[in-house]
Structure formats: C-alpha cells, structure tokens
C-alpha cells in the first residue's frame, strides 16, 4: 500500500524533512519562500513515496517535478540505498490557450491527449493561441519544436499557390524565420500541425480500437471525472 511506503519513507528521513519538502513547493505552484500548510508539506513526501511504491527505476516527469525526484534520491542516501531512481526530466509544453504555462488535465481544451480522436485534435489546434509573427509564448510553435520536428525531422505545410504554395521545412529555425516575416500564416500552419499530430496518434487509436483489454481500460479512464 502507498500508506505503508509513505510511513517507511517518513521514518527514514533526516530531521530536516520540513526544509526538504519546502524546497519542492514549486510542484504546487508555490514559491519556496511561501508559508505552507501541513498538507502542502506532506504532499511532496507522498509523491516521493510513490516512486518507491511503484518500484520506479526511472522517473520521467516534467521539469516542475524535478525537485521531488531529487528528494527521492536524497532519501536513498538516508536509508543507504545504492540504487537510486534515475531522473529523466523533460520540457514542459504550455497549454494551448493564451497565458497557460503548462497543460492541465482539468482543462481538456488546453491539452492534446493520447486518446483524442482526429476531430478533437483538429478543433483544439484550430482554437489554440497562435498569434501571427509571434514565436515566444506560442504553444503551436512549441509543439512543432519539441514534438513534430524531433519526430518527423521535417514539417510540410500545404498552401494555395497564391499564398506561396506548399513548403517543407527541414528545421525549426527556417520555419520561425518565415513565421516572423509573416510568410507563414497561422491559418496554414495549424492544419499542418493537426495533420502531423494525428499521424503520431493514429497507432495509439488503432491499439485502443483493436485490443479488447485496452478498449475496456480506455472506457474506464474516460469515465473518471476530474475534481479540484
């Protein structure tokens, strides 16, 4: 049980537990200078306990969770454990709406989910924040930089002849150069981005459609409701 793992974790920590947990307040959107409630101090401890309860060898989470992973490694020092969990921190994609620093599972419009159907992806990208000529803080360009180009090594945009015709970008820098000069417009970029994302997601959809166990699991997951 997680409760057991949590109890063992607390029992093994040094006396500076509060200071260690306080350092992890970023995961709750708080500063390490803020005053924290008891619940907010225990929250990082519970996440840390999850690592050991799941017997995770590799912790692959966003940069905002990195301090919790470090806390797990420090706990290994406390209990003299040689095999520490490996930290693999990845870039955090912003939400698709303006001003969203990261995606949120409580706001479906802010994220592209692995189980999203093609039509859902198309609608989300169509409504996504993507101001012309602006690269900084543009979630559509973030998706291109961190997902599309690493996956396909190129990005093809279909355009009418009067808009410059079709063009294939080999690098993200070439694309942003055209975008800032307004030689590439959001109205052309968004459909191409949706098409690329759907190509990536199609094997996942096929898996959940063709595998009975996976299909049942997806049905259960979709039945869950997010609470705050």
Automatic annotation (TrEMBL):
UniProt KW keywords: Aminoacyl-tRNA synthetase, ATP-binding, Ligase, Nucleotide-binding, Protein biosynthesis
Any one GO CC term of the record: cytoplasm
Pfam families in the cross-refs: tRNA-synt_1b (PF00579)
Entry GO MF terms: ATP binding; tyrosine-tRNA ligase activity
GO BP terms, alphabetized: tyrosyl-tRNA aminoacylation
Keyword Transferase found: no
Catalytic activity: tRNA(Tyr) + L-tyrosine + ATP = L-tyrosyl-tRNA(Tyr) + AMP + diphosphate + H(+)
EC identifiers of the protein: 6.1.1.1
UniProt-listed InterPro entries: aa-tRNA-synth_Ic, Rossmann-like_a/b/a_fold, Tyr-tRNA-ligase_arc/euk-type, Tyr-tRNA_synthase
Family: Belongs to the class-I aminoacyl-tRNA synthetase family.
Name assigned to this protein: tyrosine--tRNA ligase
Organism whose genome encodes this protein: Aquilegia coerulea
